[in-house]
Amino acid sequence: MTSIQGTIRLTTAQAIIRWLASQYIEIDGEELRVCGGGFGIFGHGNVTCLGEALHGMQDELPLYRGQNEQGMGFAAAGYAKQWLRQRFMFCTASAGPGTMNLLTAAGLAHANRLPMLMLCGDGFLTRLPDPVLQQMENYGDPTFGVNDAFKPVVRYWDRITHPAQVIQSLPAALATLLDPADCGPAFIGLPQDVQGWAWDFPEELFAKKVHRIRRIAPDEAEVVDAREALRAAKRPMIIAGGGVQYSRAAQDLAAFAEAHRIPVVETIAGRANLLADHPLNIGPIGVTGSDSANAIAAEADLILAVGTRLQDFTTGSWTAFDERAQIVAINAARHDAGKHRALPIVGDAKRSLQALGQGLDYAAPAEWVEKAQAERRGWDEYVAQNVKPGNRPNSYAQAIGVVNDLCHKRDRIVAAAGGLPAEVTANWRTLGIGTVDVEFGFSCMGYEISGAWGARIAQEQREPERDTIVFIGDGSYMMMNSDLYSSVLSRKKLIVLVLDNGGFAVINKLQNNTGNESFNNLLADCPTIPEPFAVDFEAHARSQGAEAVTVETPAELGEAFRRAQESDRSQVIVMKVDPYEGWTTEGHAWWEVGTPEVTTSDRVREGHENQERGRARQRRGV
Fold first, then answer.
1. In a domain, 609, yes or no
2. Where do runs of H (alpha helix) occur along 291-412?
3. Among the three residues 178, 193, 211, which one is the final residue of a domain in this structure?
4. Strand partners, 549
5. pLDDT in tens, 503-525
6. Calpha distance 444→458 (Å, rounded)
């Protein structure tokens, strides 16, 4: 490594890693590296050059060895959520299928507005050895390859074609990762030859730089319009989304709601914005919501949507609200603030709530608040019975209730696709602000264990004494479980509850609820499986180095969970649950799914007619 005055000669890969290590962020007065390290699987497309650069910086940027590139991306997403998007991890994968495996994770990060940096191998810029191993040739455009597939699912995309390009590309990528409005994954393609090319970089490029996440101040005119709309409201409600947490505005939300006596409902992403016993917390809203939240949503004349993109599970496919209700949307992203004829406040949630409350001499009518609170008391009574052991065959809700009673208020709860997001959202009683991660922005099976591994890495940096608890079904476990092994290898303890209902039971439920016969979801209903048999999840988990036990009842689950809390190793607790009788049956809003308009089945025809009747309240957006 040589240098001339004011410069330092580095390879492209070395410059990227050295630059990343010099970037810091200020969090609560403390300066931390904004990049917490990375997840990596090496191959010929990244091991010789990027691997060499990472080896020399492993103390500054620790590299966690993944088992599957998709899982690495999920882990990076879980890490970013735990750090409230203030810090991120990079993922590095080899050219070809290794990089392609990150596509799903990039989609998850994009849908959830999460920062994740991908440093991925690419072909040779010179093309002298073409075609190379794992290259996907495009006959009419040799510049077009598999890495271009990331363009629709990232917020920033670039391919480094010369070492000097690092000076522009990396700051642009980081600016995207830290921007409240445009936050999402960034992809940087690294041709194998360019990774090793050297250049004389300016030394000041690698000087320590401290970043701060921008807080966008709301426009005064937009605040005035929203304030006037709120003053006229007789039945207002607040929808609190995940953006409340990302702007660190949970206390401001509670203060605003208390000052103006406005009932609050939560989205799935905003599930832990308020504690369960807060008097204005009326429950989760939408398709996987609560009777209490959906009841007041149907009558509200003003909806203050804070930090939510109002996806269909929140809005009941836009049937949850009165057609005449006025939406006021606070969001850092203009795209989300203007949905469905909303009065927008484009700005940071914390600043916007503070601005909206200034001079707002308003409180919601007492009878409206009392009605909302009465609805919540009714929902609490239902949940108490729903999670009660022995009230029916083993269920998701019972397992959730057991853990809820025994866990610490600062333990982190992770769930994702399948039936558990609905069950956790409906039945979990929030003990600590920001402690619930239900990945339902992309509803991605396989996120659970990988995302929890990433969350645990972050959690140990903030609250090492607390546990990361995973709720996962047998279908998601079979789809991706190898990061249980990662958690064992890296000594990042997880408590994983595998709730086995014999297949993809929630989709079987949807199939049946629309009049269709059970087919290809539960193992017992797959005609191509002559003799179904049960996976020994306990033995499988033990084979990956975790401690594991199978329990028969919720009471045994509680005993096993207490033992898991005392251990310092990853734990797996397996319990069978009923695929038919165990579901939460209350609290659901209408959800639009496609059903056959023409069929020979009377049950399917009835299902289609029922589905269409639910459309009567659907709000017509613009």
1. no
2. 291-299, 312-315, 334-337, 349-357, 366-386, 396-406
3. 211
4. 573
5. 999 999 999 999 999 999 999 99
6. 21
